[in-house]
Design a protein that fits this description.
Elements lengths: L1 H19 L12 H5 L9 H13 L5 E9 L2 E7 L9 E2 L4 H14 L26 H5 L18 H7 L6 H6 L15 H15 L5 H20 L5 E2 L13 E3 L1 H12 L13 H7 L14 E2 L24 E5 L3 E6 L4 E8 L2 H15 L6
């Protein structure tokens, strides 16, 4: 009995020595009602842990402004939260997340037998005798290795090929401006991330879907195809694609949709092209191609970013995810200033984060997204 009564005293006496070895354990702040309300009964992970990690995406310093988060686990909404002024009905601009939609559309046209991956890309301007751009294939365009002259981020800003196409001398006919660029490298030889390339792909799709050069006809042909073949079957009713004056889909940067609908797209890709009811909207093999590394960049597939390390030639540090913290099978739609749809097939999870963050803030925010993902086991 004497020994038992001394145990609390001995334990208390050792506490100063334990704290001297390191900092005292910190007790986390209580979770707010808002944080707890963001998590559903289908969390698929410890609810309080998920509530805290999602809350940190909105409240931790150094991450920029998070405006929307949707976490899908096992096909159901596990968590959903918005900052003030935003909600489930808010349409968010895609920026470069649109590229993945363009990649899916091209895959559907390939599956329809209307395009071929390894033949000369059907761009009329490149088909003149002796034009070396005629060697550029559809596959090379999808993998951002066309060899066309391009500078994605110029200094000064107006020297950026993307800015010139979107807002300056190319804005009325973006595809023509992009397609007029000369080669600066042999087709297929190097990776060069290019919003303009995605607009060329969108133009190719329009030319396949209609022979007309009338802008209204081109717009309708592409919009109807996307809604009939993708947005409609997935229930993505909020999606609004933008077109330039020539009727070309601005398929590299300007498609609008709610956070829930962006999550539906991520889930569609996680299911390898299946709609929720089981309908195969694009072949499984196409989605597998989308998430397979290009020969010139381990981080990029077909219009989609992959969870690979920034170590090899042709990699892009600005678009690194978290290869040291998540499966290599993770892939992502990534848009300017911190728009993300991160998909982990092996964990059956999709995370949407939409907001506004600088490059430095995105690096911090991505680690917080990794914290959310780590709550879910691999299967």
């Amino acid at each position: 009995m004497k020994m038992r009564s001394l145990l609390p005293i001995v334990t208390l006496a050792t506490l100063p020595a334990l704290f001297a070895c390191g900092e005292a354990p910190q007790i986390p702040d209580p979770l707010s009602k808002e944080a707890l309300a963001a998590v559903t009964e289908d969390a698929g992970a410890p609810k309080k842990d998920l509530a805290r990690e999602v809350d940190d995406l909105f409240t931790k310093d150094g991450q920029g402004e998070t405006r929307a988060v949707v976490v899908m686990a096992n096909g159901k909404i596990a968590a959903e939260r918005y900052s003030d002024g935003y909600g489930p009905d808010t349409r968010f601009v895609s920026w470069s997340m649109a590229k993945t939609i363009t990649g899916v559309m091209i895959g559907m046209l390939v599956a329809d037998g209307r395009l071929r991956l390894d033949e000369s890309a059907p761009v009329p301007l490149w088909q003149r005798p002796g034009d070396p751009r005629g060697e550029i294939t559809l596959r090379q365009l999808l993998q951002m290795r066309s060899g066309l002259r391009h500078t994605e981020s110029g200094d000064p800003l107006y020297e950026s090929s993307e800015v010139r196409m979107l807002f300056l001398d190319g804005r009325d006919d973006m595809a023509r401006w992009a397609e007029e660029q000369p080669l600066e490298a042999e087709p297929g030889a190097k990776f060069e991330y290019s919003t303009n390339t995605s607009v060329i792909l969108a133009d190719i799709a329009a030319r396949v879907l209609t022979d007309s050069s009338d802008p209204d006809v081109r717009r309708k042909a592409v919009a109807d195809y996307l809604h009939a073949r993708l947005f409609g079957p997935l229930g993505m009713a909020s999606m609004v694609p933008e077109f330039d004056r020539s009727g070309t889909l601005i398929g590299g940067s300007l498609i609008h949709g709610t956070a829930r609908d962006w999550a539906k797209l991520g889930e569609f890709l996680r299911r390898k092209g299946q709609a929720p009811g089981g309908e195969q909207l694009v072949p499984r093999s196409w989605v597998e191609k989308m998430v397979t590394s290009s020969p010139r960049s381990p981080q990029y597939g077909f219009q989609t970013w992959l969870n690979r390390e920034y170590r090899e030639a042709g990699s892009d540090k600005d678009h690194e995810l978290f290869p040291d913290r998540a499966p290599a099978s993770v892939f992502s739609l990534i848009g300017h200033m911190g728009q993300y749809v991160v998909v982990s097939p092996r964990q059956r999870v999709t995370i949407v984060r939409l907001g506004h963050s600088t490059h430095a803030e995105r690096m911090v925010m991505l680690q917080q997204m990794a914290d959310v993902l780590e709550l879910y086991p691999e299967r």
